């Protein structure tokens, strides 16, 4: 490529950037008009609209002809909306910390970077912060494809008045990060209990003699390992980078397709978007065919169940409650009718929230 050609292309890029600059600011102005109208109607709580954001992203993905991928378009426009929203007031989002956890990554993926983030110690603390109004939204892990359900989150959902307002799925890549120069120097390996479990085979093969120490998060593991040259952490890229810990071996998780699902917690369910999910918890007294009978209305209305999980009931020994995820919104006519019929049969039916399906 000659210097002249390069200069000509760069001049074109500058022109496009100028147009983009004008357009994103024009868009921010329009979003501010919407916010002003909401404020005039006293609907300040409505500034963040997850259903509208899902619609914006889905429409753009459908229109996208490349060369950027749908994932790139989603990421870019999420950040644009995040910045537009922060012009009014940055959202306060609590998540399972400390900084550098996968939950933080999930929170940023869902809300964009223009938020006021509040890393907290423990799932319970995240629930409490949103319940008390200290944060408007919270993000907690709920399910890992290798390790199964995060039972603490399920149990807390049962007792909380919060609603699930969104879901985020994140591929989980675990790394061995350490200041040691060779594997035999490592005598201790820190991680969250889920991180250790997700890399069990790798550890048995490559570091069978090292002591495995479960700590409160993979970020905390990286912090501890950064202070001890005989230690390593199993942690994310973000956590290793945050504590300046070199990655000795990348991507050591046993399942190639290791991913975690996170829930976004808030106070009110978003309105239907046409592509939604509903989560609920149900129970019926223990008798033969009890669960099958309880679920019969779902089959009758042709509703799709994507998850069924049992947990011991807080009410009594050998009693169970069932966590269910369904396709559809609780306000969709068929789902509404089915839920009404299930309510008649159940000793407990609590809707945990209807929310747009994740847009990745
Ligand atoms: O459409 C709205 O209700 C807006 O407030 C605008 C907008 C946007 O930037 O597109 C901003 C924030 C909301 O979360 C959803 C959408």
Automatic annotation (TrEMBL):
Pathway: Amino-acid biosynthesis; L-phenylalanine biosynthesis; phenylpyruvate from prephenate: step 1/1; Metabolic intermediate biosynthesis; prephenate biosynthesis; prephenate from chorismate: step 1/1. Its EC number is 4.2.1.51, 5.4.99.5. One of its GO terms (molecular function) is prephenate dehydratase activity. Residues 1-92 form the Chorismate mutase domain. Pfam families: ACT (PF01842), CM_2 (PF01817), PDT (PF00800). Residues 279-356 form the ACT domain. It comes from the Bacteria. One of its GO terms (biological process) is L-phenylalanine biosynthetic process. The keyword Isomerase applies. GO terms for cellular component: cytoplasm. The record marks 260 as: Essential for prephenate dehydratase activity. Gene3D superfamilies: 3.30.70.260, Chorismate mutase, Periplasmic binding protein-like II. It catalyses: prephenate + H(+) = 3-phenylpyruvate + CO2 + H2O; chorismate = prephenate. Residues 92-267 form the Prephenate dehydratase domain. Keywords: Amino-acid biosynthesis, Aromatic amino acid biosynthesis, Cytoplasm, Isomerase, Lyase, Multifunctional enzyme, Phenylalanine biosynthesis. It is found in: Cytoplasm. InterPro entries: ACT-like_dom_sf (IPR045865), ACT_dom (IPR002912), Chor_mutase/pphenate_deHydtase (IPR008242), Chorismate_II_sf (IPR036263), CM_dom_sf (IPR036979), CM_II_prokaryot (IPR002701), G/b/e-P-prot_chorismate_mutase (IPR010957), Preph_deHydtase (IPR001086). Coiled coil: none annotated. The keyword Phosphoprotein does not apply. Catalyzes the Claisen rearrangement of chorismate to prephenate and the decarboxylation/dehydration of prephenate to phenylpyruvate. This is Bifunctional chorismate mutase/prephenate dehydratase. It comes from Spiribacter salinus M19-40. The lineage of its organism: Bacteria, Pseudomonadati, Pseudomonadota, Gammaproteobacteria, Chromatiales.
